[in-house]
Amino acid sequence: MLSNELITAIAAPIATVLVAMLALVSALLGAAIASRAKIDDALRARRLETYPKLWAHTATASRWPQNNLSVLQISAFHRALREWYYADGGMYLSHRARQRYGDMQEVNAALLRGRDNHSTQGLCEAEYQALMTVCSSMRTAMTFDLNTRKTQPLLRIGQWGTQTVSYTKTWFSNRKPRKLAEALADARIQESVAPEHGAAT
User: Fold this and answer.
1) In the list 90, 100, 118, 132, which could disulfide-bond 141, CB 3.0-4.6 Å?
2) Threshold 0.85, pTM exceeds
3) Hey, CA dihedral for 194, 196, 197, 201, is it positive or negative?
């Protein structure tokens, strides 16, 4: 049977090692958190520089008041977003915001498909609504990236959960305007082709 002195002699070094290991793990975690915080702060600073320009672009299809947009203006909007993405802020978009940017460009492409990009023909109401919806989603994604609409929670897990739910809802809700824009483009192209077939017969 081990004596108390022997147990103490064995336990003391083990306890010392455990305390040292805990201190090391704590220091490493603290350093990792501090490093991540610096990266987050730097990324947010870059987004604060670039996002306002993208925000301003989305005013093309504002909700209040609505604009009378032409095909020519949509073409210019399509190119302006591309220029912003590659020359200014595309690399700073979160995954969520990158998806919303893609939604905007998909709708723009559908609105332009089969049309003369220099045409002053106006959009129909359904086309405008589709573009307006995805532009609104883009702005919401930017506010999430910048945390400008809500106070910072004590636990980031709560914020993560809220944003994940919003991201999922937006992904599903944006399918409708994308599909609508594609359907309208298909119908428009079919309508333009039909008279040609009629004339040939």
Assistant:
1) 100
2) no
3) positive
